[in-house]
Amino acid sequence: MKKYIFYPGCAMDTSAKAYNESMQAVLAPLGLDFEEVHDWNCCGATEYLGISTVPAYALISRNLALAARQTNGDRTVVASCSACYLNLAKADYYMAERPSLGELVNVALAEGGLDYTPGTLEIRHLLDIIINEVGLDAVKERVTHPLKGLRVAPYLGCMVPRPDYKKRWSDYEYPNELDRLLKALGAEVIDFPLKTHCCGGHMTQISPTTAFELIRRLISSADHHKADVMVTVCPMCQLNLDAYQNETNQYFHTNYKMPILFFTQLIGLAFGIEAKKLGLGRELVSAREALSRIGVEVPQEEPEVKPRRKKPTGLPMPKMPVNEEKTL
Amino acid sequence: MKKQTEIEGKERIGVYVCHCGTNIAGIVDVEDVAAWAEKELGDRGVVITRDYKFMCSSLGQELIEKDIKEQGLTRVVVAACSPHLHEATFRKACENAGLNRYLCELVSIREQVSWVHTDKVAATAKAKAVVAGGVERVIHHEPLEALHVPIHPATMVVGGGIAGIQAAIEIADAGFPVYLVEREPSIGGHMAQFDKTFPTLDCAACILTPKMVTAGTHPNIKIFSYSEVTNVDGYVGNFTVTIRKKARYVNEELCTGCGICQEKCPAKVIDDIYEAGLGYRKGAYIPFPQAVPKFPVIDKANCVFFERGTCKACQKFCPTNAIDFDQEDEYVTVEVGNIILATGYDLFDPRQISQYGYGRLANVFTSMEFERLSNAAGPTNGEIVLRDGVTKPTSVGIIHCVGSRDRNYNNYCSVICCMQSLKFAHLVHERTGATVYNFYIDMRTAYKEYDEFYQRVLEEGTLFVRGKVAEVTDAARLSIEEGKLIIQVEDTLAGVQRRIPVDMVVLSAAMIPRHDAHDVAHLFGISCSANGWFIEKHPKLDPVATMTEGIFIAGCVQGPKDIPSSVAQGAAASARVLGRIQQGEIALEPVRATVDQSICSGCRICNNLCPFNAILFHEDRMVSEINAALCQGCGTCIAACPAGAITGTGFSNEQIFAQIEGLMRVNFQHEKMTELA
Hints:
heterodimer; A: alpha/beta; Glutathione S-transferase Yfyf (Class Pi), Chain A, domain 2; Rossmann fold; 2 domains; four-stranded parallel beta sheet; 15 helices; B: alpha/beta; FAD/NAD(P)-binding domain; 29% helix; globular; disordered N terminus
């Protein structure tokens, strides 16, 4: 068992439950033991760094400071989300490169009784750990149900290989790590030309039509290559391509039905783990048909449960006469 | 400005301070330096000091000669420019006046003082220190005699490309023997692969093959093809070179070059060398019809007989019984006086720039592949077609600067790519009528008639987009992009992003040093830059010589260049060699290191450090010895010797210590002195 400190990030427990479930299911077979960073906070995602540098880096570095405290010999922090991974790596890199930034961040951290010396931790993505620490040979040994006949589009998104601060990836423009992993699982991997192109990120909130175009490019290219499923390593990529696929279809009058799965889900399937334990069935564009081709039965989507309204705890607002007039 | 004082030493020293116009005098108060030296260094033997506007002028030299004769000077110190420039000038002046040339010391107050400092007071103080150091040092100089070694009249040219061929022919025509060593089965080099040459568009083969034939039939040229140099011993004028003639499995005495073996050979392999991977050759092959020499080679790795023990089709059909499967590598040793290295370049592998898709996307080609594609003797007989071998492209994108002028790969400009890309554009136009786009960062069309060619290609209607291509992809976004290669580029003149769908992409890949350039440099005892280009003695004034006497370089081995420049360098190198041969012998600087064999412990630390392979080790006596003719006096071994057993003439310990003491004479009190530390 190799021990690592794990930074889950906000998505793993919300939009990317399937990622979390499937990752937890494959950790033990891969010989990995993750210890979560205690009391971690949001990494600031893609926006905050663009708004205010020092507070943004302080927000990120609080996680690094907490993780550094609990290192216990192992200096590596693993992130499963691409944005979290990049933010943590960025903070570590720029605090060292710009000492003045490092000092300011540490002033902020000191308010909470924390400090962080850049370079203390190694920050790595889950895919990197599986490829370079677990190794493909160990993965292959575990494969009991090769994904034979499943055509997969390996999609990394933009934030995992770039910028490659520590030169960990085979090629920052066209990396082959995910391709090699999926091949080791027995899948038929297409040479996906857009593997490092952008999924739109938070453009879905700011300018949906821009995001739709970016999503369309990815899905149509995967479809063009006759992929059965697209595989991602990032909660945001998965969310954008899955949750907005329908709207994208409406916007462009297309009819794509490309299931978007996490790479850990396919690892789990190849290891013979039950579909349900891998969060399969949670995706919005169903992978049922695609996976039935390789004999995997995806559990029936649970009947839609209307989200329960939270019990209102606040007090009612006073009615404003102006509003009333307008509504009349 | 004469002054006679009581002196301690027995030497009578003259100090000459040069103004170098304003080069030195603008920053250093040269009059003050001269006056100071006369006053302060009188006790060290300085009997005369002068300053003069240009010491290197004939009037300046005459000053020194006159003083030597009239004042009986026994040592001379000139404070002027770097010894690289004028050491020889002032040594000659001393010699003219009857003083041993090595009793002159040139100290640099230009490159190391006036050009690098801005504070006049501090610079003047430093100049005084440097002069004092020179004076102390020159006291310990000894009269030396130059070493004279004979020059063997034969020359070796390594590399049979156009530069090497030119050099070989020039020397041979002058009546001296040449050994031309070529790694491949035929001479011709990269030029033999091209179809047309820019800017005149004359056919490469038409102008190259006559030269190849001349080299092949010249009574003074002996070609070793399919051969490599394995060992170089000796020194300028007297090299002993071992050549490995790789087994061709063809008896050259019997072979007529009829080509039947090639025809009958059943093995067909991709030709990565001559056809740049775009065509096939046989297991028994002559690389191209005009090959020189005409003898084929049986490629052992791809021969059915060597693989399975049966076949011998070539042997059965050979009319002169020239096939010899028992042939082995042969080692030949030759004596030569000079060596010219013209080993050429490799093409940058664009697979490294993965976003351009070479190797993944079928219709992305390298520039060398395109040369073969457009060559009438190439795999498609000159038809410019897509990788399927039949479809003519309707649109072609040519990308410049692939792997050059790019900090991720090579910073340098690869020189030929702009002109080569223009040539490609013209050929595509002429042969297919396709729309051609050139994607460039800057157009570099210097030299004779080059820019006129650019204008011509512009007028032909080639479209030019200024910008670095971001990506070549097959991921279509629009229906018109379906089935095409899309070039994504920022058009920096229009300030917009463009996506241009084309059928074919040609990558003008950079010229890079040969993959084994470092090994070759080591073998011949010369230096190459970090990226692998061989370093010339002087980038402007001595571009074909190297720091190692007797080894010259020509062509792309020194840096990227086009055919005219390669030919010029080949001829220039041969002129240098011919000059040497005509002299019959060469005078070598006597600045050499010597080993005191009674102190040498035989640790051999110096053996591998010597960049010139000048140190040999006597196993029997366990001591090292330095070959005076090979030694260049660099001093590396002296610094490294743990026993202090090695000394250098011209830079002995006494000389160095005395120079340091001289430097310390000046009291650096000025506030800016720390700047000089």
